[in-house]
Design a protein that fits this description.
Blueprint lengths: L18 E11 L7 H16 L15 E5 L12 E5 L4 E3 H11 L8 E5 L2 E3 L1 E7 L2 E6 L3 E2 L11 E3 L4 H10 L75 H11 L24 E3 L9 E6 L6 E6 L2 E3 L5 E5 L4 E10 L6 E10 L7 E3 L4 E2 L7 E7 L6 E8 L6 E4 L4 E5 L3 E10 L4 E3 L3 E6 L5 E11 L3 E10 L10 E5 L10 E7 L8 E10 L7 E6 L21 E5 L4 E5 L2 E3 L5 E9 L3 E7 L11 E5 L5 E11 L4 E10 L5 E10 L4 E10 L11 E5 L15 E2 L8 E9 L5 E6 L23 E5 L4 E5 L2 E5 L4 E2 L1 E5 L3 E7 L13 E2 L5 E9 L4 E11 L4 E2 L3 E2 L13 E2 L3 E10 L5 E8 L11 E2 L2 E2 L3 E11 L4 E10 L2
Parallel strand pairs: 1-2, 1-3, 1-5, 4-6, 5-10, 19-26, 35-40, 49-55, 57-64
Antiparallel strand pairs: 7-8, 9-10, 11-12, 12-15, 13-14, 13-16, 16-17, 18-20, 20-23, 21-22, 21-24, 24-25, 24-26, 27-28, 28-31, 29-30, 29-32, 32-33, 34-36, 36-38, 37-39, 39-40, 41-42, 42-45, 43-44, 43-46, 46-47, 48-51, 50-53, 52-54, 54-55, 56-58, 59-60, 59-63, 61-62, 63-64
């Protein structure tokens, strides 16, 4: 909601900073003295309470202090003291505002730029907010009014017949406010322009109808800052809600103050609320003839108080003597301004009163109509207006009339009151001439419309449905924008196409309206139309048509026949499925939805039920199976009107598998076979390994020439739910030394071997290749030299498979002979052979040689025991690693016989020593002589000799 704040100006403010407006009340009455000064003073006080939202107005709805105050003017236009009240005796106290507004205000009017003129009358004849609906006129009569005219015209001001809240409403109009409603409109795009032009008053399209009933005639409130739609204002002075009005909004207050500081700033530029001098003088006078005619004598009598001297002024010229009375004769028609100044000893401190005397020939023509607009036409609907004659002093009358349809000004009657029946519509003018034989007077011209009442029907199709597949159920409205009623049994015809093109077929029988449709009203009807076929999706309805030809073809006259047709299409019950197609992968879940329009659905049916979560529902889940396939789902829905329609969804599951093979190991398996361990994988996110999946092994790439299949073919026996699985197979050993594995082959060998071929997203990644590595073993170290009696571990390296059995020979010096890596602690040079076997019965061997050296340069034992126990069984030379070779080594017995000799032998090796035999027989125990020539690594030689004892 827009909030307003006041910006107080300094001009015409009272001590509280309020803007003050001087008022002058002109009491127009047959007995003006019946309205007392106190009543006027009380009315001003009440007006101030209304504008300050205080007193009796404080307990009402949300309102604000407008910051505007009122006072009875204390300074007259001529500068004298005044009470701010005038009294005029006149029959115009009961007047017609359309005909006599000027005549009323011409009786008395103060400067409208400086004073707010309020004409207080007993009755106002007028009509406003006139409307015609459903055969009835709605008319608001006899309402007070206020003008917002900043031109300075003497007619600007307020005409009121009562005080209280209604006077506050009139003052709002006088200060530029509009009613809070705009009849028939909720426009609120720009709240500073639309509606009443005030942003904190919610839009309304009708006046307030009650002080208690909640009324919300518009739903455009939020366009001007309201957070939600709120009820129309009821208690606002500008809502016309009745006796409960009691407040202005902040926005209205701001707008009135803006207008006061601009177009009406003359009201607040001078201080007319304080008397110009201190003497308590009140000037007033009466006259004995309220409507003088030519030649009449009029006596004016002062009723002033507080003064002793009198100055009469006629048309600005001092007249008569210093007396409380004045007599004037009026020799001509027109108007004369008579004023009286009353003072004591100081003529500058005076009070004044003025009266305008209007002189005519003695006749005043007046009339008032009972209504201000009608609809009437001969042979259609006749209506009349009663013109009530209110003339004064006339004895004969002429009623004149003209219109814009060729009726020239003419006298239509000489009766006193005219009740005229209008047979022809048009824009009319009526005026009255009253006479007494010697004096004539003519009223203002009253202009009013007489509308053409001829009916004008339009048809609207508001609710059209397919019904039981071959019929159409239609709800339609017939609206009459004319005044005369559309009679019962007026025909309506229905067509399957535009009947104007000559190719339309009329459907069913002609519909006859079962009830009349009043003027400016609508009637709603329903009908069941037989189309005799399904699928008709457009309907044309023609009002006032009996189906026998072009319009008009009935006896009902209308203002227009070109607006008698309406159509509606796309009302057939229609079903769509979403999506209408989809591509999925196995395991995917897809929600299938149904959209049906324009009617509600009474039943659903999906077919077939395969892979669906439900079939009699508007939404169902489709779960794709693990296979390549395509399936169409049909949805048939039936409407609540018995019509049905079908839609289809095509679902496809294209190839999704992506098989790969990896050869993990190849193992020797006998002389001509291999054991292959391999892994099959499916790269599909939810992939598995199906049963019957084929794997081929080749000795070359499958596409090369002279490629051989390494039989037998492998086929998965059962499905594996995992995306990868390991398998084993025996195949022929290839002569090429290579193995090519192919999974799910679809190029060859598809006919002669069992298994299933599976579709894949790609086939270029379905093979793997590996070399056939021979099954063999190597021992580390293979040939080494160690210190005598030093342990050394032997490590075999196996290629081409995995060894499951080990055999070391000889077992001498080994920690174990059937393990994979024994420890040898040799006492002499030794050579080992390792025989291994894999789990598929393939064998292979490897050898290792261990040589020894001892501590020191050359160490020759002095005894040995060749008894075959494996220890010290030979006599041989021990040497360090700086010894390269034993050039000559020989042993002699005590008789000089040579019992042993070697040349170019190795040290530290029992094989190159004497084993205690002579000619193949054990030599005798005893002492023997040896000779050893040693070649060192540096090329030097040295002879060693000594004795050794053979012990048995």
């Amino acid at each position: 909601m827009v909030l307003f704040s006041f910006s107080l100006t300094t001009c015409a403010q009272n001590g509280s900073g309020e803007l003050v407006i001087p008022l002058v009340f002109h009491i127009i009455n047959n007995d003006p003295a019946s309205i007392t000064d106190q009543q006027i003073i009380d009315a001003v006080a009440d007006l101030n309470e209304a504008f300050s939202h205080s007193g009796p107005y404080a307990s009402g709805g949300d309102g604000v202090n407008t910051g505007i105050r009122f006072c009875l003017a204390k300074i007259a236009p001529d500068g004298g003291n005044t009470s701010g009240i005038t009294r005029t005796n006149s029959v115009l106290s009961d007047f017609d505002s359309d005909l006599e507004d000027d005549r009323l205000k011409n009786l008395v009017s103060w400067n409208t730029r400086q004073y707010c003129n309020i004409w207080l009358v007993s009755a106002v004849r007028n009509e406003f907010l006139t409307s015609f609906s459903c055969g009835q006129w709605s008319r608001h009569h006899d309402t007070d009014y206020g003008t917002y005219d900043t031109s300075g015209s003497y007619t600007d001001g307020i005409v009121a017949k009562e005080f209280g809240p209604s006077l506050a409403s009139l003052m709002g109009s006088y200060l530029g406010l509009k009613p809070t409603f705009v009849p028939g409109s909720c426009d609120n795009t720009n709240c500073e322009i639309d509606g009443d032009g005030v942003c904190d008053t919610p839009p309304a399209s009708v006046p307030g109808s009650s002080c208690t009933a909640v009324q919300n005639s518009c739903n455009t409130d939020s366009l001007s800052g309201f957070t939600r739609n709120v009820p129309d204002l009821v208690s606002n002075f500008m809502s016309m809600s009745g006796p409960c009005i009691n407040s202005f909004t902040a926005g209205q207050a701001a707008k009135m103050r803006i207008n006061l500081n601009n177009g009406r700033n003359g009201l607040i530029t001078g201080n007319k609320c304080n008397a110009p001098c201190a003497e308590n003088i009140v000037a007033n006078f009466t006259r004995d003839n309220w409507m003088p005619k030519l030649g009449d004598v009029v006596h004016f009598t002062s009723s002033s108080t507080g003064g002793t001297n009198y100055q009469w002024i006629v048309d600005g010229i001092p007249t008569g003597t210093n007396a409380p009375g004045l007599t004037l004769t009026f020799p001509s028609t027109g108007y004369t301004v008579v004023s009286l100044k009353v003072f004591n000893t100081d003529p500058t401190c005076f009070a004044s009163y003025t009266d305008k005397v209007i002189v005519n020939c003695g006749v005043m023509a007046r009339f008032t109509p009972d209504v201000r607009q009608i609809a009437s036409k001969e042979f259609i609907m006749l209506d009349s207006i009663m013109f009530t004659n209110k003339s004064v002093n006339g004895n004969s009358y002429q009623w004149w009339m003209s219109n814009d349809q060729g009726m020239i000004p003419q006298v239509v009657s000489d009766v006193f009151n005219l009740n005229y029946i209008f047979k022809k519509p048009g824009k009319y003018s009526v005026w009255l001439v009253a006479t007494n034989g010697s004096c004539n007077d003519t009223t203002e011209i009253f202009k009013f419309p007489v509308f053409d009442p001829t009916a004008d029907g339009t048809i609207g199709l508001s609710d059209v449905h397919c019904y039981q597949q071959t019929k159409i159920a239609a709800t339609f409205s017939i609206c009459n924008s004319g005044y005369a009623p559309i009679p019962t049994s007026t025909p309506v015809s229905f067509y399957d196409a535009d009947p104007r093109n000559g190719h339309a077929n009329r459907l069913s029988t002609v519909f006859l309206t079962p009830a009349p449709v009043a003027g400016n009203c609508c009637g709603s009807f329903t009908g069941l139309i037989d189309a005799n076929r399904s699928g008709l999706n457009q309907l044309f309805a023609v009002f006032n048509d009996n189906g026998n030809g072009s319009l008009p073809n009935t006896n009902l006259p209308e203002l227009s026949y070109i607006n008698n047709m309406n159509s509606q299409s796309d009302f057939q019950f229609h079903v769509t499925t979403t999506p209408d197609s989809a591509t999925l992968q196995p395991g995917d879940s897809l929600l299938l939805n149904v959209v049906a329009a324009p009617d509600t659905v009474s039943s659903y049916n999906w077919s077939s039920e395969q892979d669906l979560s439900c079939t009699a529902c508007d939404s169902t889940y489709f779960v794709a199976e693990y296979k390549v396939y395509s399936i169409t789902k049909k949805m048939t829905a039936t409407s609540n009107y018995g019509c049905y329609d079908s839609a289809f969804t095509v679902l496809r599951v294209p190839p999704f598998d992506d098989f790969r093979i990896h050869i993990d190991t190849l193992d020797c398996a006998g002389e001509d076979s291999l054991h292959v361990a391999f892994t099959l994988c499916n790269n599909f996110i939810r992939g598995n390994i199906p049963a019957g999946l084929r794997v081929f092994f080749y000795d070359k790439a499958p596409f090369e020439n002279q490629t051989h299949l390494l039989e037998p073919l492998f086929t998965t026996a059962a499905a594996n739910p995992d995306p990868c699985a390991s398998y084993n197979a025996f195949i022929q050993r290839p002569v090429t030394g290579k193995v090519f594995g192919v999974v799910n082959e679809n190029l060859q060998n598809s006919t002669y071997y069992p298994g299933i071929f599976y579709e894949e997203v790609r086939y270029d990644n379905n093979q793997d290749t590996t070399l056939v590595i021979p099954f063999q073993v190597n021992i580390h170290p293979a040939d080494t030299t160690v210190h005598l009696l030093s342990p050394i571990q032997l490590y075999p390296t196996v290629s081409g498979g995995r060894a499951v059995n080990f055999k070391w020979e000889p077992p001498q010096y080994l920690s174990c002979s059937d393990c994979s890596s024994p420890v040898s602690t040799p006492e002499a040079r030794i050579e080992y052979q390792l025989t291994i076997r894999n789990e598929y019965a393939c064998e292979t061997t490897g050898t290792a040689s261990i040589k020894l050296f001892s501590g020191g340069t050359v160490n020759i034992p002095n005894a040995f025991t060749p008894n075959g126990d494996g220890h010290n069984d030979a006599f041989y030379v021990l040497a360090g690693d700086e010894v390269k070779l034993l050039k000559h080594f020989s042993v002699f017995n005590r008789w000089g016989q040579k019992v042993f000799q070697v040349e170019d032998a190795e040290a530290n090796d029992p094989r190159f020593g004497w084993n205690g035999l002579l000619n193949g027989k054990a030599a005798e125990p005893g002492t023997y002589v040896y000779y050893v020539t040693v070649l060192f690594a540096n090329g030097n030689t040295k002879l060693y000799k000594g004795t050794v004892t053979l012990v048995r």
